[in-house]
Structure formats: C-alpha cells, structure tokens
Write a structure and sequence with these properties.
The protein has about 110 residues and is of the alpha/beta class. It is built from four helices and four strands; from the N terminus they run βαβαββαα. The chain has two domains: about 70 residues, ATPase, V1 complex, subunit F (Rossmann fold, 3-Layer(aba) Sandwich), CATH 3.40.50.10580; about 30 residues, no CATH class. Helix content is about 30%, strand content about 20%.
C-alpha cells in the first residue's frame, strides 16, 4: 500500500512539510480543517499531520492515521495529552508522567 502524507493547518505550520513530500492543505478555520481532513481521509493509505490548533478535526479522519503536531506558536499540550493517552492505552502505563514529560499527572 502506498502511503500518502497530508499536512493540514495554517500555512506557517504546514509549509515545512513540503520538504518531505506532503500534500499541504492550508486552512484558516475549524470548518476548513474538517473538510480538508475528510478529503485527505478518502485517499487509501492516508497519513494526516494535523496542526494542534485544529486537532478536533482529527475526529473526522475515518480510518486514516492522524498525528497532531504543535504549531509555530508552540505546543498547547493537546498533542502531548493525545500521545499520553495512546501510550497509556497500549502499554497500560503512563510513561510520559513517569519520565517527567510535562503536563499534569493523571490519577
């Protein structure tokens, strides 16, 4: 299967992904982000790099693999929390909190 890399977000957040061959989809608001994610997810083998500002649009990825990345303004902790959730769910241990990886500790 061929993997197609899509980058969705504001231009300053996604233009650097052109260097690695991503299909860049510049958006200005949440509705545009949802439409871009839906369109990207329709392609077989879609991998979507989604700027943290529009992380909620990842819910519309319909089976595509989505990675949330911090934007140029810096991380808002959404990406870290999502990574923490996935690691904890798959391993049963919150490795990020144990390593002192920032953010709040879960109880």
């Amino acid at each position: 299967m061929k993997v197609v890399l899509h980058a969705v977000g504001r231009s300053q957040d996604v233009l650097p992904y052109l260097a690695i061959g991503a299909l860049v989809r510049e958006v200005q608001n949440s509705q545009e982000a949802v439409e871009a994610v839906k369109a990207a997810a329709r392609q077989e083998g879609a991998l979507i790099l989604l700027s943290e500002e529009f992380a909620a649009a990842g819910e519309y990825a319909a089976g595509a693999l989505v990675f949330v990345s911090p934007g140029v303004r810096g991380a808002e902790s959404v990406a870290l929390e999502k990574t923490r959730e996935l690691v904890t769910r798959s391993l049963g241990v919150d490795l990020i909190a144990k390593a002192g990886g920032g953010g709040r500790k879960r109880e």
